[in-house]
Amino acid sequence: MTDHDVAQDPDERRLSTREAADRLGVKPETVYAYVSRGQLTSRREPGGRGSTFDAKEVDALARRGGRREPSGAGGELAVRTGITLIDRDHCYFRGVDTSELAAHHSYEEVAEWLWTGEMRRGIRFTAPHDALTAARRAVDALPAHTGPMDRLQVAVIAAAAADPLRFDLSERAVLDTARTLIPTLVAALPRRTTGRPLAQAGAEEGGAGRAGDELGAGGRRATVPGAAEQPAPELGAEDGPLAPRLWSRLTAEPADPPSLRVLDAALVLLIDHDLAASTLAVRVAASARAHPYAIVSAGFGALDGALHGAASGLAHRMLLEVLDRGSAAAVVADHLRAGRRVPGLGHPLYPGEDPRARALFALLEDVPRARPALQAARDVITTTARHKEWRANVDLALAVLTVATGMPAEAGETIFAVARTAGWIAHALEEYDEPPLRMRPSGQYSGPRPPQPLP
Fold first, then answer.
1. Is 421 helix (H, G, I), strand (E, B) or coil?
2. What is the DSSP-derived secondary structure letter of residue 93?
3. pLDDT digits (tens, 9 = 90+) for 145-162
4. Residue 92 forms beta bridges with which residues?
5. Nearby residues of 319 by Cβ (< 8 Å), 6 or more positions away
6. Which of 215-219, 259-263, 318-322, 445-449 has the lowest mean pLDDT?
7. DSSP code of 45?
8. Phi, psi values for residue 65, rounded to 5°
9. Alpha carbons 253 and 406: distance in angstroms, whole number
10. ω into residue 70 within 30 of 0, thus cis?
C-alpha cells in the first residue's frame, strides 16, 4: 500500500492505541488484552513509540460487540474453555493443531478424543434402532421441499423423544448419547438419488475461461478424470466410517478415496471454532441443564441463520456462476457493485488465510474432478487480492468440494452441522461441570423510566 492510497482512503490508515480504544469504547490496556486473545493484531512502526492497529479490523471488532471489556470486567461474560484456541492463523483442539488432527485421524476418532481425552483408533458410531426409526419416520413425514437443516432439527427432536433416559446428565450417559446421536442424524437424512455432475457446473458453450481447464475444443465439456470411472464404495452399511455414510446423503455422484478424504477432513476441521454463535447458544442451554438432544437443537437453531451455517452455500453459488460465465472478475464485480461482500473470503479471527481452508485446499489438489472448481476459487482470490486483503476461508474450500462432487448448495451447511455436533457435546460436558444457570448476563434497560401511566 502506498502513501497515496492512505491519503485517499482514511479507513486504511493505522490507529494508535488510544484511537483504537476510543473506537472500541474500552481502556487502552483492554486493547492489548484483545491482542493477546487473537482478536486484534498490532504492529510497531519503525521508529514509532507505540503499537498501531488496522482501522478496519478495529471497526470489525466493534461491530462484533467488542465494545466491552474482556474477561467480564465491563459486563462481557467470559467463558473459560479448554477445547479450542485460535492463535496466529492456527486453530488448535486441546493444544493440537487441527490440520494435523485432520491429516492423521478420522472424524469419529477426533470427536472421541475431544470428549474423553482418549484416541481410539478405528472407533465407529452406530445409530440405535429405536432412535433411528423415530427420526426417519419424522423426517419422512416432512414436505418434499424441506431442506437438510429442517430435517436435522426434526431428527434430533424425534431421537430425543425415543430416549427416555435423555435427562441423565452423567458423563457416561452424555457420551453414550453423543456416540449414537451423530450417526442417527446422518442416517435420518434421505439418500441422494440425483445430483448435478461437475460437467454441468462448467462453462456453457463459448464460456471458456481460466476455470475451464477441463473443457474440450470449442468449449465442449469433457469428462473430468476420475469422476465417472471410479467405482462407488460400499455406502449401504450404517456401521462403517461416518464420512461415506454422509456422502450418500449429500450427492449421488460416485465416491472415490481422495474425495472421501476431503469430506472426512472437513468434518474434523469444523468440529469446533471457539465460542461461535451456535456454540454460545449451546453453552447457555447446558448452563440451564438441558439434555444433550436439546443442546444440539439449540445449536441447530443458531446455526440456521444466513450469517452462520449458510455461508458456504453463497460461496457454492458464486463458484457455479464463475464456472458458467468463465470469469471471476465479472462475478466479483457484481457482488461489489451490489454492496455485498465476496462469499468465501475473509474471517474476523484470521488476519491471514483460514487454516481450515488451507488444509482442505491441499487435499482437494488430489481430487481430479475438483480442478475446475479449484481454479475458479483461485481466480476469485486473485481477482480480489488486487484491491482487498481478503483471504480464503473455510466456506470457499467447502464450496469447491460441493461444486466438484455434484452436491447441492446447502451441502456445506449440512457438513458443518453434523461436524459441529461433536464440538457442541464437548462444550456441554464442560458446562455441566460449571455452576448451573451461570449464563445469566444482566440486561441494560433502555425503555421509559417508571412510573408510566396504565396503557
1. helix
2. E
3. 999 999 999 999 999 999
4. 85, 97
5. 201, 373, 376, 377, 380, 399, 400, 403
6. 215-219
7. P
8. 100, 20
9. 6
10. no
